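Dear colleagues,

I hope this message finds you well. In preparation for our joint manuscript, I am sending the Lipoprotein (Methylovulum psychrotolerans) sequence together with its predicted structure, so that both groups work from identical material. I would be grateful if you could confirm receipt.
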Amino acid sequence: MKKLLIPSSLLLLTACASTAPTLPDGLAALTNPSTLSCRFTKQSDADPKTPATNWYFWRQAQRTETRDERSNQGEIWQKIKGEQFFYTRLFYNEQVALDFMPSDLAAIGNKVSWSQLTSLVDPDSLGKTLALQNKATVNGMAVESYSGTINGVGTEVDWLPALKLPARLVKKQAQGTLSLTLAECSPTPQQTVKPISENELNAMRHLDYTDLGDMETDPMAQHLEQLMGDHHHDHH
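The corresponding C-alpha cells are as follows:
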C-alpha cells in the first residue's frame, strides 16, 4: 500500500509576530480555555490572486476538530488514553471520512502530542526551540512573541498563555508564507460553520486507512490519495 503522510493543518502550520498582534474582542472573558470555538483568517502569498479564507478550530477536553474553507476538508482528533488517538480526515465535497486507528498512526510514523493538537503549536517548543522575543498586553490579554526554526523552517508565534492558543501563526518557506490569524473565539460555536454533527458524520462514506491498499482500482480511493498529496504539497 502506498504510504500516505497525514498532511494535518495542525502539523504543517507553524507560527509569527514581531510586534504585538491585534486581537479580537472578548478574549479576556473566556474563562474555560479547554472548550473553545475559533475562526482564523488563513492567508498565503504563494499565489497573490488567492484571497484570504476562513479556517475553523474547535477544541474540547478530549477532541479537536478543524475545517478549511478553501479545500472544504476537515480533521477530527479524538484522545483515547495517554498519547493514543483516533484520527478522521473529512472530505466534505466527496462526503467521505477516512478513519485512522492508533495502530495506523504508529505505522506511518505520525508523532504528535495532544498538547500540540489542542494548541496548534507544541507548547514545549516555546522558550526552547522558539526563543522569547517580546511580552505585551493587548485588550487585557498577555501575549508572548517567539521566533526560531523548527525542522528547518523559520517560524514565529504570538502566543496567548491564558488560552493556550496562538493569536497568529506563520510559516515561512521558499515557496511563500502561510499564516493563520485569530479572528474570533467563543466558548460555543457562534459562527455560521459549525462542527460536524453526529448525523452528518454517520451519513458520510467511511473508509479505513488500512483498506486503501486493497482499493487501488477504486476511483474514490485514487481521488483521495491525490487530494492528500496536493494538500501535503500545498499546505492547505
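For the figure legend, we might mention the following. The first strand starts at residue 36 and ends at 44. The chain has one domain: 9-174+183-230.

With kind regards,
E.M.
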